[in-house]
Each structure stands twice: as C-alpha cells, then as structure tokens.
Amino acid sequence: MNEQAEARTFRVVERGGPAGRLVLRGQARDAVHWLVISEFRGPELPAQLTDPAIESAPDAAGVWHLRCAEGEFQFRARAVDRLATQPALFTPLHRPFALSGTDRLAVRVLLWLLRLPGGARVLRHWHARRG
C-alpha cells in the first residue's frame, strides 16, 4: 500500500473530532484528493504536508509511516483512505440538460415578470408549454 497521491501539497482540514479522524486535502489540476486517517494516534503533524507518501508497517498491525518533505512520522490508525473527487468527470453528462442562451434570457424575463401581478400565472404557462 505504498502510494503517493497526485496532489503535491496537502493541508490539514480536520483534526480529532468524535472519531479521532485526521483529514488532509490536496488540490490537483482537475481533482481534489483527500487522505482520511481514522482513529489517528501519533505526533502533531504540520499544517501543510508536501508530497506525502503513506505506507503500512510490515511488522505491526495498525502502524503507518508517513514520509513527506517536512519529515517522517510514525502513527497508529485503524485505516487510511484515499479519496479523489473529480467534478470535471460529470461536465459532459450535465451538458444535455443545460439551458440554452435563449432559455436563460427567457427565465430572467419571467423571473422579472414574477414581481408583477399575474406573473406567477405567466411563469406556469411558459413552463407547461415548454414541457
């Protein structure tokens, strides 16, 4: 389980909490990478880690080694999870449902008309005609 995350700089965004969780967040070009360490018991880590690499110790269960530019740290934890969120992955899927420029203009006008008496009726009529 010797892996290095794609993001170079990770910031500590959560320490402790009810589960003793340590959360590190790294920003890459097109994704956000998270390192979530449950039941973290170890030394105080710096607020920012550069090029972190986490590996489990081969001889002891629950012992992990963290190597980064700031130094080497050994800690105990129940689990270390690596998560990556990639919002750009869904952009092509949402594109067919996006409103066209004409529809956006019509919505702006209709929302402006909502302020007038009878505006809600006009908006309902437009929506019924569109569907």
One letter per element, helices H and strands E, the order comes to: EEEEEEEEEHHH
**Could you tell me how far the N terminus lies from the C terminus, measured between alpha carbons in angstroms?**
52 Å
The whole-number mean of residue pLDDT values reads 84
Number of domains: 2
Oligomer: single chain
The percent range for helix content is: 10-25%
For the largest beta-sheet, the strand count, sense and barrel status come to: 5 strands, antiparallel
- Taking Cα atoms only, what radius of gyration do you get, to the nearest Å? 24 Å
* Number of H- or I-type helical stretches: 3
Total count of strands: 9
Q: Name the strands of the widest sheet in spatial order.
A: 5-2-3-4-9
